[in-house]
Model the fold of this input.
Amino acid sequence: MLAGLTEAVLVTGPVHPGGEEIVHAANPAAARLLPGLVVGTVVADAGYDALTDALVRARPGFEAEIDGRVLAARAVRLDEDGAVVDALTCWYLRDVTEERRGSASLVRAQARAQFLAEAGRALHGVLHLDRTLRTAVSLAAGVLAPTVLVMLADGSDTVRWARADGGESRPHTGELTRTALRSAPRLHEALVGRAPVDPWVTVELAELPVWNERPAGEVVVVPVPGALVQGVLVLVGPAADADALPLGEEYAVRVGTALSAAALYREQAHLGHVLQASLEPPPLPSDTAGGLLVGSAYRPARESLRVGGDFYEVLPRTDAGRTPFLLGDVCGKGIEAAVLSGRVRQSLHALRLVEQDPATLLRLLNVALLDAADLDAPGTPGAAVAMPRFATMVLGDAAGLPDGGSRLRLATGGHPPPYVLRADGRVEEVDVAGSLVGALRDAEVGAAEVVLAPGDTCLLYSDGVTEARGGPTGRDFYGEERLEAALAGCVGAPPQVICERVLQLLGGWLGGRDHDDVALLALQAPTGRRA
Amino acid sequence: MSPEAPEFAVRTEKEQVPDVGPRVLLVVAGDIDYTHHEALEAAIDHEIARANAPLDLVVDLAAVPYCDSCGMRVLLGAAQRIDAAGGSFGLRGVHGQVARALRLTGLDRVLGVAGSG
Done:
């Protein structure tokens, strides 16, 4: 009956009550698993200690490695009530070698997945190239291999590296110059992703000054893929197990992602700084520009990518004795605004070489910007109507008068008109209006002349001032009336103080809310006669 | 205390103008600023793309308290494209800061502005 069972079955029992256990029966499957057992012989003589032990101690089963196989045995006493002392025991045996091996590899796979997940978390969000590099080697040393090295090419002239030796807490880092890499051409090719990793790379690596002592034992080189950076992951020393290479490759992918993110972040941060710097108004020439006192204030939007294109400048006095100035604003935000603001200012600098009259300058600038926009638009001019790009501005120049006052020539395109604060405290809005610059072929340029008596101030401002939202409701515009009142309260103050006072009042109105760019430029005719 | 900024929304309505033909009305609510100008641009692009005849588009700004240079750029760009295609573009319900900004920039005469009256 037992012979027909595919399951291995073994029956043991004492020769007599309390006597030695002998093998009563074993089916072929059981004989294959425990070939030392012979029916009718003493179990203990077969030398299967786990079985003997289980019998003596009346265990319900055992699991043991026997002849290289893992056997699981379950014992069933054939006495119904447990009272009979010479009862037979039936052993059901199972070869669980594969099962156990499977679960061991499952455990390893789980450990791998956990390592990768933890590494991913640790690497993610570091967003700093060198720190990511150090983290990458620290995490892997002692796990993937005793010593781990990562080399990184980020498009610059040098290759950065970090190495961690398992057990040591601080990773070592350094840079290799292009000259140093000349002795390792294969590695260099592999680093920049132009060639696959080949055995020569390993040989070249050993010679580089990136080791504490020459790497001994197995050296595995895994490419680190990345969009902006490329590199290699080097594992040195005996591998933990056969899965080390695929695990290393998986790890390299995560390291590559983290390094690329860090490189991208660095690039964006750099771009942000360049952008900010390009939008920063240049310093004013001096506090007395051609007999004119000048002051300015600029408060960029808090969010750097919302920085718009407010700009202003006061140029040195021309040979004709005029001091040119301007304050403007380009449409849009961020990089686009920075580019347009650059184009506007450069165009003006060029146009000033041939033209000084503010209104004519503005008309020329309008044409220059429209022509440039046509060149930018795809296809023939007029065929595709591109999104308009425009600026608004007040530009002008100041010429000193014999009484110490100043005559301003103003031209405006689409910009809020300037104010004049008279020395006696009156505030006047200059009656000048024109249309946007750079958007319309038939643009209207407004022109006006203003005479500043000694002590009078002309204030140019961007719409970020009047359109600042705040107040009790948080939604009210600062508006012209408040600006006029603020200005009236500044009578007698020097121009720099006026600008800062207005900015201060505006800050109170905003109450910490975000805002667009704010720019102020104040020009004042000095009171005292100057030599 | 301080009321939240109103939600931005663009609603499309169709009108039949006697002796002229169909007109598309875009009713905008909220600030047309850096954050929202692209939503208006998308709505206008959608109308331009699906018009199979010269488009007669009117944008109603009665519920728009604020329009910055990004918004003016969208309105001007729309007017220029629709004009180039033989259609017509107009604004209505213009008031407050929007009216002032359009007047300052000279866009009131270009964009066919009708006030809220």
